Description:
mainly alpha, Beta Polymerase, domain 2, Four Helix Bundle (Hemerythrin (Met), subunit A), five-stranded mixed beta sheet, 5% strand
Amino acid sequence: MTALSRTPDPDLALHSLDRIQDADEAGWAELAQALADDRELRARLLGVLGSSTAFADHLAAHPEEWQRLRSGVTPPSTLEERTSVLLAAVGADGDGAPGTPGGPVAALRGSEAVSALRRAYRGLLMDVAGQDMAPVVDPSLPSVPYEEVAATLSDAAVAALRAALSVAVAELQQSGVDEVPRLAVIAMGKCGGRELNYVSDVDVVFVADQESDIPTATRLASLVMRVAGSAFFEVDAALRPEGKSGALVRTLDGHLSYYRRWARTWEFQALLKARPVAGDAALGADYLAAVQPLVWTAAEREGFVADVRSMRRRVEDHVPSEISERELKLGRGGLRDVEFAVQLLQMVHGRSDTSLRLTSTLDALRALGEGGYVARSDAADLVDSYRFLRTLEHRLQLRQLRRTHLFPAFDDAEALNVLSRAVGLRASGRSTAAQVLVSEFRRHSNRVRRLHEKLFYRPLLEAVAKVPTAALRLTTSAAVERLAALGYTSPEGALRHIGALTSGVSRRASIQGTLLPMLLDLLANTPDPDGGLLAYRKVSEALAETPWYLRLLRDEGVVAERLAQLLGTSKLVPELLVRAPEVLRLLSDTPALAERDPMEASVSLRSTVARYSEPARAVAAARSLRRHELLRIACGDLLGLVEPTTVFQALSNIWVAVLESALDVSVRDTARTTGEPPARIAVIGMGRLGGAELGYGSDADVMFVCEPVEGSDDAAAVRFATAVVEQVRRLLGAPSQDPPLEVDIDLRPEGRQGPLVRTLDSYLSYYRRWGEVWEAQALLRARHVAGDRELGERFCRAIDPVRYPEGGLDEAKAREIRRIKARVDSERLPRGADPATHTKLGRGGLADVEWTLQLLQLQHAHEHPGLRTTSTLDGLRAATDAGLLDAEDADQLAQAWTLAMRVRNAVMLVRGKPGDQLPRQSRELNAVAAALGYPAEVDTGEVVDDYLRVTRHARAVVERVFYGE
Length: 965
């Protein structure tokens, strides 16, 4: 009673026992005693009877068959033994394989043979089911893994095909054919992969030896299909060339001719599981050897990946909507999702990796995981879910030994309870067994679908599929020619990098071997493929112990594509990347990469650094966060995802945040020896920092202003502030591999000879008595950036009369500004620099535009408040609104200024160091063009012409507005 209660359906098991008793009253006492004494028999027999009405029917018809489930009975365990059982059932004697000369020929024919085979085959299936279901009834018995069950069922099917062939030969000879043609039976699908169900069509292809044999071979193949279909299962030959409309049997040459000329993608996919199983073994081996090379080059076909994906969608679309959620095989999250993903990965990567050339889905999935083509965790999850879904399929088919893949209706509690018990699930807590089963089914289905979409639609597949098979073997001599053809100037050097990345047998080397063919193509489309590959090697070696690095490149195709573009264009990016690898994760998330609010990053940096009290650690943290943000901005900029003005603003904000953090920790540290800080300190941004227009290599022009707190005097305040400023400059100016953090205070009163810090009154006194016109001009960009906000803003209001002089600028001072500008143009331009393409001091460059605007500000800001801005572009718009510039002139100045800023930034990104000159060397100029967003095929002369045209127009405006010509 305990054993009955543990069966999937106790009522069915008990009723079936009653049927057996009725069928064999004489033998019932023996069976009853055996059930009491034999624990394994009890578990096997009741497990079968509580799962399957079909086996109950079989035992009612043949009651003595229960004997084969006894614990002391050893069932057939090999393919040869199972074949012998079925051949013996039809009286077939003889050596060799059925269907070959001298092979066993059945003594029984027609319905007698079919009946005998059906009974023998059903007994073989019951052997498997007894072993499979016994642990459900008696958990102390060892469970049989799904793979073993499927392999045993597949062997039974192969044995059945061989027995059917022996009967077919007998019937063929009976019809007057003396010489049996050479015929090979090739298993396809699940039988080919040794992963068959209890009930399934068996897919086959028939191969004849000679054209002259085809008529007789076709008769023989038809007889095999008829016998097998009547006795065992339907034999489906629809996977043959041209499908059901094609010839049932072809020669090997006929098959090859078709596959080479006409075969579609899905037909090569089907051949993945091809396996000779019956008939002429030598012919079957020849067939397999001939078609295998076609399978493993199919991925090179135009649109191969898209074809496989389209096929999966068509299969899915044919599932009726009302049952799609319950369809175990074809629906979303079903078995086909796993199989299609695995087969696509096999066919793309198996071209170069023979370890992936496996017929079993789970074996191939494990190999993909071991080879690094799939994350180990993803492979393990898919194996687990595939086993679960296949086990459900087996249990459903056991019920009546009919083909079905349909999970019970979610409201059919009785069917769900039986199925849940059949797979070993029981009620848990407040959940019934049916609820537990539905929850598990949905969990596995959702996981399969998620991983299917992750793997099946991985962009890496398309990229790798486009690489010729020969090129996947990266160490061959042919690879040198391919690398040269791709545009690598040093193919031998590239091969050395490839060898270093792929050497050894580690999982990391395997993943690199998968990625590199695709990356080589991507890098070939960048301005510097050789430099990009070298950078990739350095980054990979630096991140060798970072577990997610290669996984991210493999699983997120956009990351690999964007990384290749960055490394083949910029020297700054790889330098930053090895010290800020976490930014790589952002390459797959465009909003996180390019749409972060510039203020958000600076606030985050300040709040993080504020937690440190030791200056060196605080600044190290600030540098780290700045490095992260600098790399994020650079990546977004190079990929064309961020507007230029946003780049300038973001770079300025992050500099300000570092400055603020360094000032804060220096004030706290210095105050430890003096007690309460005797002064408030404000930092005034000047130059491009004041205008929030910094580039990647810009230093920070600043002035420091202090004010004594109550109870302190000016001298004490200045001493304290000076100590703080010296520490800030020392901390930020320390050597670093990152772009420097140079604090430039040369714009302070008296320049390099003046004090580092002054009080507000001291500044005002100096400007009123000694200030020169160039100093008033410099103050046009002054704004509070760090430190005490109230003091900083008060400073800016106090200097307004100096930088926005009442009545404007008299002619003498205007002439002085023009004279200084002319002197700067002639004396400060570096020796050998081309004034036409020098972004800062060249004609129509940054200085031309900025001095022109600043002259207008000095002359007119007292009467036009809109001109009182530190931003160059805002100032040009305000000058237009005030009628001081024509809209066209302002637009030309803005274009030139923006282009010059972008070129300076591009040079820094490309070279990894600052530069003001548009490069002359073609490769660098190509890289700058790419950084500016020009298409890959652009002529570098066009880039130079564009720059010269824009700056020439701006220079004409400068000469007219600034110089009055």
